[in-house]
Design a protein that fits this description.
heterodimer, A: mainly alpha, MetI-like fold, B: 299 residues, 2 domains, 0% strand
């Protein structure tokens, strides 16, 4: 177990090296004029050269890469060409917002999707099952940014139930920083009204983001439940006369869920990078919005940093899922 | 007698194949959802080809502006209203089908090509080449694909071809893994050994014997991916990277519509719904094709 963990964590090193090489190649080898964009249209040649020199962009690519990797080992992700702020600090301030959004969306998807999948498996080939299958395909196909716009239109603009976007109104003081999740921090600070406000801001983006993982988890849970129900041990449990509820929770749900876990792990990483559009619609100040702003101005250091951080979280999430397998399914042993 | 035998030979070969097609079509028809998907896809393809011609206001599609008619609510003349430039939203949406479908198809096609070459070589060669290619594939998979596509698109500059290329470069890893698995499965088949024994070159074995036998799952994945490729194209348009106006594109239209909400809400409905129906169509079609071509992959 410990050996397994150590080996998997050591595997992160080649991942980091590979990720930075790919992102550096995109940033430096493709055509594009980041310096010109950052310096502005009225900059003179001398000013541009000064800017390029300040950021080391006049040096050969391999030199720049070496500098970057050296900085990386000290936790330095470089500086933004546009704002001149250190990327690591920026990411640290934007990451909690994205994580809060993704956790909320995944929580909705799991809490609703898993029981729904189990239920539709029980009601297989009856009308609630058909209905939910059709709705699930619709949910997977719905463009998240269009759904976001519709939610905004209905709940924020017509009914006025929920705020249009952002994490908190400007007039509300954010709670003291503990986790970076405003909802959690507000609870820790005992500030209940801020918690409700933050939750209202979180609701629409989280729902918009949760719809397609919810549908996927439901479909996965349904098909693996159906598979498990046909197993001998379920029949044995029935033959022994165990109560229906016990068979469902102990024998079926538990075994079906371990297959669904893989999907959850994959979706978690995928959502981290997929928040871009939802964050744009709801002005949610997270990594996606940060990366978009940087990409539009070809400011590549933040983009490399964001890709690296999300990539690492993705790999770690999958490691956690692998460990969770062992907890749910004792047959899994780590060599 | 002899010419009867001559004629019957090709028949004997074609019959099982036609029978297979007929059986597949029968199974496909049995599923109502698959038929809905096929119908939706047909409508989308129809508009992709004829949308520009059938648009009621072709001058708006070409970039014409009528500021006197801006922000008209839905009416008989303009079923989905007019936008901030006085253009008919229905016409723009119909014409926008072409860009979305072409871009989506381009992404899936280029992604498949790169992925098939990478996965085919990796699976066929095995050993260190396999190791290197697959580690590279896994690495590309860990980079969030939308951010990767956005970064490449921004670095390449605006334009249709650049956008398609950028998304394709983040799209191929899935195909590489799929094809590699299929190739490894097919590599040990008897017909491959037979081809080797007659002295076929490795390239010939891979491209003429192994890959043609891996086509079904690839086609299924392509049809399932079409919808998401179209969504990614629209997503880039929504963010402002992608096709430049006046070329009508659904994502860009939605992004423009957003600035005038909530009072002018109708400009968002047509492109958004068109996107939704297109993706639903391709997803249902893909599910149906999978049930016929790749029963093992059924979930």
């Amino acid at each position: 177990m410990l050996l397994f963990l150590v080996r998997r964590i050591l595997l992160l090193i080649p991942v980091i090296i590979g990720l930075t090489i790919i992102m550096f190649a995109i940033a430096r080898l493709l055509p594009g004029d980041p310096v010109g964009l950052a310096a502005g249209p009225n900059a003179t040649q001398v000013e541009r050269e000064a800017l390029a020199q300040e950021f080391g962009l006049d040096r050969p690519v391999w030199g720049q890469y070496a500098t970057y990797v050296t900085g990386l080992m000290q936790g330095d992700l470089g500086r933004s060409l546009l704002t001149r702020r250190p990327v690591a600090a920026d990411i640290a301030s934007y990451l909690p917002a994205t994580l809060e959004l993704v956790f909320a969306a995944m929580a909705i998807a799991i809490v609703v999707g898993v029981p729904l999948g189990l239920l539709t498996a029980i009601w297989r080939n009856r009308w609630p099952d058909y209905l939910s299958q059709v709705v699930a395909i619709g949910a997977i196909s719905m463009p998240r940014f269009f759904l976001g716009l519709l939610l905004q239109l209905v709940f924020a603009m017509w009914l006025l139930w929920l705020p249009l976007g952002g994490r908190l109104p400007i007039v509300v003081m954010p709670p003291p920083f503990v986790t970076g999740f405003i909802t959690v921090d507000a609870l820790i600070a005992g500030d209940f009204s801020t918690f409700v406000t933050a939750l209202k801001h979180l609701a629409m983006p989280a729902i918009a983001l949760s719809l397609s993982p919810l549908a996927t988890i439901m479909r996965m849970m349904r098909s693996s439940s159906i598979e498990v129900m046909a197993q001998d041990y379920v029949m044995t449990a029935r033959a022994l006369g165990l109560p229906r509820r016990k068979i469902l929770t102990r024998a079926i749900a538990r075994n079906a869920f371990s297959a669904t876990l893989t999907v959850i792990g994959l979706y978690f990483g995928w959502l981290l990078g997929g928040t871009v559009l939802v964050e744009t619609v709801f002005d949610w100040p997270g990594l996606g919005l940060y990366a978009t702003k940087a990409i539009v101005s070809q400011d590549m250091m933040p983009v490399i940093g964001v890709a690296l951080v999300i990539g690492l979280i993705f790999v770690m999430a999958n490691l956690l899922i692998d460990l969770a397998y062992g907890l749910i399914n004792p047959k899994v042993r780590y060599a | 007698m002899s010419d009867v035998a001559d004629i019957s030979m090709p028949h004997a070969e074609a019959a099982p194949r036609r029978e297979g097609l007929a059986r597949g079509w029968f199974r496909f028809r049995q599923s109502r959802l698959s038929m809905v998907g096929a119908a939706l896809t047909f409508v989308v393809l129809f508009f992709a080809v004829f949308g520009m011609m059938l648009a009621p206001y072709p001058e708006h599609v070409a970039g014409g502006i009528e500021t006197g008619l801006r922000f008209l609510p839905p009416s008989w003349a303009h079923p989905f209203g007019t936008n901030e430039l006085g253009q008919d939203v229905l016409s723009l949406t119909m014409a926008g089908t072409t860009v979305s479908v072409l871009a989506g198809f381009g992404v899936v096609l280029i992604g498949t090509l790169i992925g098939t070459v990478m996965g085919g070589i990796a699976g066929f060669a095995g050993g260190w080449l396999d190791e290197i290619l697959m580690r590279f594939t896994d690495l590309t998979l860990t980079i969030p694909s939308l951010i990767l596509a956005m970064a490449i698109a921004a670095a390449l500059g605006p334009g249709f071809e650049n956008m398609v290329l950028a998304i394709s470069l983040s799209w191929w890893p899935g195909y590489a893994r799929l094809v590699r698995g299929e190739v490894i499965g097919a590599r040990e088949e008897v017909y491959v050994t037979a081809a080797r024994a007659i002295g076929a070159s490795p390239t010939r074995v891979l491209f003429r014997h192994i890959l043609p036998n891996c086509v079904s799952p690839i086609i299924v994945k392509m049809s399932l991916d079409m919808g998401f490729a179209i969504l990614t194209v629209a997503g880039l348009g929504f963010i402002g990277i992608g096709v430049r106006p006046p070329t009508p594109e659904w994502g860009t239209m939605l992004s423009n519509a957003r600035s005038y909400m909530p009072d002018i809400w109708w400009t968002a409905m047509a492109p958004g719904t068109a996107m939704f129906l297109t993706v639903v169509g391709f997803n249902l079609l893909g599910d149906g094709l999978r049930d016929i071509l790749d029963p093992k992959g059924r979930r």
